[in-house]
Q: What sequence folds into this?
């Protein structure tokens, strides 16, 4: 008879399981039988599977669709009721709401949701109220809540989404920490990739890496960079990541305005290579749960230039590992770009401190260990 506890992990897209849960799944599978639920096929998550980890394709819409959402809720309730899991864990808002409600109705003992940022944080009016209500419903149906930063935890408590007793942070923050063996300084890659992209070794490279959309502040960053005048001829901006909402015409125009200085790269499975060739990591987001890419860049030795919002105030220590600017303030971003461009000693000091902090406080080994302790305590 199998005495191992059974965990079900639910996500809206397979990529989330790879990026945020891969290390957790590997570690937890040593003691638990795990089932992954997500849209897609077995091939999408093949690298995560083993004798103790299996996959079940589960259709769920990312956007609100009452009919489809009710159908997904019914299917998941029936699945959880039949399989009798000891724990269901979810990430992302939509899968979180469906999984926590299905877990509640199926009487799954432990129901855990991991908050990684709130879409409604930058919204106004009825849309904000509706999304806040759905997060409160999610939180009420869960038995335990996690979040990836202390400032996000404080924001959720202040917004009356949940109580302080119900939500906690693993270690000092992040979802799964940073793999310091993968993300580390690499002079060979720095030289090689710069040569491939036509960027001089002496140039100062600012890097944005993530989903390319307006909520990430990419357009603000592009506008601020394009306004850098004489004396900045060897400054470059590299934008890496998929276009979430199609190609933004304004961003495309900015890219075309500075040929040879603006560089656009689509989705990459090797973000560490672009971090290795850069000098400064930029995350000008309007909302962010923590900013995992920030500590990955830090582990490579990059200082960060980020917006002053909850989540990023945990990922970056002001004037120690990076500098802040006000979200959406193009002039403030312009000033920060100029300061970091002109002061190589500042870049070196911040970068060295960032590297040491990433390895000390946010190593994957540390955060994955915290998750194991947490799961053991609630399952």
A:
């Amino acid at each position: 008879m199998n005495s191992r506890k059974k965990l079900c992990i639910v996500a809206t897209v397979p990529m989330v399981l790879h990026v945020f849960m891969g290390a957790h799944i590997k570690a937890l599978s040593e003691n638990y039988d795990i089932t992954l639920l997500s849209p897609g096929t077995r091939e999408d998550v093949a690298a995560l599977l083993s004798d103790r980890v299996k996959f079940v394709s589960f259709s769920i819409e990312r956007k609100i669709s009452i009919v489809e959402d009710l159908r997904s809720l019914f299917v998941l309730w029936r699945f959880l009721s039949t399989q009798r899991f000891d724990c269901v864990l979810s990430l992302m808002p939509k899968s979180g709401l469906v999984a926590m409600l299905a877990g509640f109705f199926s009487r799954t003992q432990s129901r855990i949701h991991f908050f990684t940022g709130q879409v409604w944080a930058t919204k106004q009016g009825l849309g904000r109220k509706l999304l806040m209500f759905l997060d409160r419903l999610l939180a009420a149906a869960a038995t335990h809540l996690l979040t990836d930063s202390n400032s996000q935890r404080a924001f959720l408590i202040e917004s009356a989404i949940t109580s302080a007793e119900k939500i906690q942070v693993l270690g000092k923050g992040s979802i799964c920490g940073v793999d310091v063996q993968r993300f580390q300084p690499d002079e060979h890659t720095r030289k090689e990739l710069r040569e491939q992209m036509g960027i001089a070794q002496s140039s100062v490279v600012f890097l944005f890496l993530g989903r390319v959309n307006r909520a990430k502040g990419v357009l603000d960053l592009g506008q601020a960079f394009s306004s850098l005048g004489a004396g900045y001829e060897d400054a470059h901006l590299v934008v890496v990541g998929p276009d979430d909402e199609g190609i933004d015409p304004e961003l495309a125009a900015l890219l075309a305005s500075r040929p040879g200085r603006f560089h656009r790269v689509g989705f990459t499975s090797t973000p560490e290579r672009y971090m290795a060739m850069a000098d400064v990591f930029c995350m000008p987001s309007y909302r962010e749960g923590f900013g995992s890419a920030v500590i990955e860049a830090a582990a490579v030795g990059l200082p960060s230039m980020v917006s002053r919002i909850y989540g990023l105030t945990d990922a970056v220590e002001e004037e120690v590992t990076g500098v802040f600017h006000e979200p959406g303030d193009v002039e403030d971003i312009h000033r920060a770009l100029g300061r970091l461009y002109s002061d190589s000693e500042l870049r070196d000091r911040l970068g060295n401190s960032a590297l040491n902090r990433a390895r000390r406080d946010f190593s994957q080994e540390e955060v994955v260990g915290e998750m194991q302790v947490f799961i053991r305590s609630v399952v």
